[in-house]
Specification:
The chain is mainly alpha-helical. Helix content is 77%, strand content 0%. Helix 2 packs across helix 6. It is elongated, with a radius of gyration of 22 Å. The termini are far apart.
């Protein structure tokens, strides 16, 4: 009987250790996901607080224009930015699909219609720099910077540096 009790005790210890490791790892992954989501959602919420009259799809349209300039293939991290923004703005996939046809016009028409304050433009630029920085390499930074220029008139070199700095911070 003591041999059986010893084996059961060892099994309980092993199961308990594995359970502890599994829960700890699951919480670490959840923490990373929530931090990523918060980094994206926070400027979107702030943008709409600063400019409550913005159309519901403004941030998504701006995001599609900027990230679309980098090519047709987006990495998972940029798709996550799109999905987090979509969830925050409560837009469905059909609404996103309808917006994708207006990518070639650039940000100028969007910004002209929005009439953003300087602080709202700063928040929008910060959000779009973050989204641009989610591309794993700097190959598209020039294209992103060109699209971002009209937001506040920041120079392309400055924008490329901000994208690179943000990429280092989030990686």
């Amino acid at each position: 009987m003591s041999d059986l009790a010893s084996r059961i005790g060892e099994g309980v210890l092993i199961a308990s250790g594995f359970n502890h490791w599994f829960v700890k790892r699951s919480l670490q992954v959840a923490n990373v996901t929530m931090r990523q989501r918060g980094r994206v959602v926070s400027p979107v919420v702030k943008l709409y607080r600063l400019s409550p009259d913005l159309s519901q799809d403004f941030a998504i349209r701006a995001l599609l224009v900027v990230l679309g300039s980098g090519g047709d293939v987006w990495p998972k991290e940029q798709l996550d930015v799109l999905r987090y923004t979509q969830m925050t703005l409560q837009l469905d996939d059909a609404a996103i699909g309808a917006l994708e046809r207006d990518l070639d016009a650039g940000l100028e028409p969007l910004l002209a219609d929005a009439n953003l304050s300087d602080s709202a433009k700063q928040v929008l630029e910060d959000y779009l720099v973050l989204a641009s920085a989610c591309y794993p390499t700097d190959t598209n930074d020039g294209a992103y910077a060109k699209q971002l220029f009209p937001v506040r008139g920041s120079g392309e070199a400055e924008l490329k540096k901000r994208i690179a700095d943000q990429r280092r911070r989030i990686s």
